[in-house]
Design brief:
The chain has nine helices and ten strands. With 251 residues, the protein is α+β, with helices and mostly antiparallel strands. The longest helix is centred in the last third of the chain and has 20 residues.
Amino acid sequence: MTTTTRPVIGVELPQAFDVRWSRLPGITVSGRYITIDPAQYFFRFDSASWLVCDWELVRDQLLGTEETSDTALEQTALEFIRTHGRTTADATEVLAIAFEVYSYLFRDELLPVGGLEQIGPGELRMLREAATLMALNKVEPDGTISNVGPCWFFPAATSVVFDLDGATGGMIDEVYHSTWFNESRRVESIKAHTALGGRLVHGCQSVPDQSGGACLPYGASVETFRTDLRSFRDAWLAAVYACRISAPTEN
């Protein structure tokens, strides 16, 4: 663990989080107020700065943008970040922006989704909460992973917090990373993630294997990202599962 002494993070969000997030070390939930002790919560916390864009700008100026034959959507997103991106050392601000991003991407009005009948309002809440906390993870422009918290391992963290079996946790993870297996949702994801300074990248390769993922800066080396990920995956994944209250159910 490479965490150094850093101040406790406290944030009040628009909606209350599930109190069971307190099962993970270093995080306490009291209604809408969340506190995170970096020394206990993070496995690695080497960078206390994040690239963000104001959500209001993304919402008002980018979400309605259409891709054209001349400009790919990803290029538009990159240019938006270059123009409006800024660095913040305020983790509270990152969490507040992330909550808006994922409240949009996993909003209840998208339900029901054909082929994903297992996903309901409860599952969307899990997605919103876990993804919000994942925004504190960080990958540098060269692909090096600088911040890793328990929610990097999405199915493991959600199984600990929400008492999910392996199949359900994996399904929710796939909806997160696959952007609903839906092109319209993928487009929304590219636009919305500009508020967090990048694009969503899955750490798994051929099959889901609990490698998680993060919002990477455009241009970051995915090979460096995956090499770094392999160096810590097994030990820290086991540490997350060790927080589980009940025995896992496997299908």
